[in-house]
Design goal:
CATH architecture: 3-Layer(aba) Sandwich
Radius of gyration: 15 Å
Structural class: alpha/beta
CATH class: Alpha Beta
CATH topology: Alpha/beta knot
Order of helices and strands: EHEHEHEHEH
Strand content: 15-25%
Number of helices: 5
CATH superfamily: SPOUT methyltransferase, trefoil knot domain
Oligomer: single chain
Number of strands: 5
Strand order of the largest sheet: 2-1-4-3-5
Shape: globular
Distance between the termini: 23 Å
Length: 160
Amino acid sequence: MKVWTIAVGRPGQDLAAPIGAYEERAGRYWKMETLEVRAGAHGGGQTATDVRTAEGERILERLPDGVEVIALSRAGESWNSRALAQHLDGHRLYGRPGSAFVIGGAYGLALSVLERANVQLSLSAMTLPHDFARLVVLEQIYRAGTILRGEPYHKGPEGA
């Protein structure tokens, strides 16, 4: 099964190396691909809605056909690490093409992307910078692989 991360913009200098490290680690368990779309222009008469809409169009153009879309949203469902692992394992077991985790830009995700999503997933009730969200979701994808293989990385209790 393939797992995509689709993110608005490139990671900043401070988090580029850790993001790359977790992309590589997650690649031990899943076929991974990262797609980045250009961030919208801020200012110059552009409203937050204009920026989100433009970014959303670019995201929707890049979504692979037939994949499950998991939009990261503060208002989404809250899963623990084992629930994510079981979710991804279910897709692998049933031969589904894969899942794409979509990470918005500074103003979040466009309504069109949220409507296209099969799942809206919350990493936290707090607002996270998109680079942090990208790092967290990649670490959790990696963690899901270790959970499914019974490796010792995940130290949480059975239900977490």
